[in-house]
Amino acid sequence: MGEQQHVKFPQEVIDEYASLGVDLPALFSAGHLGVRMGVQILEASADRVVGTMPVEGNTQPYGLLHGGASAVLAETLGSVGSMLHGGSSKIAVGVDLNCTHHRGARSGLVTGVATPVHRGRSTATYEIVISDEEGRRVCTARLTCLLRDARPGDEVHVQAAQA
Question: What is the pLDDT of residues 57-69, one digit of tens each?
Answer without folding.
Answer: 999 999 999 999 9
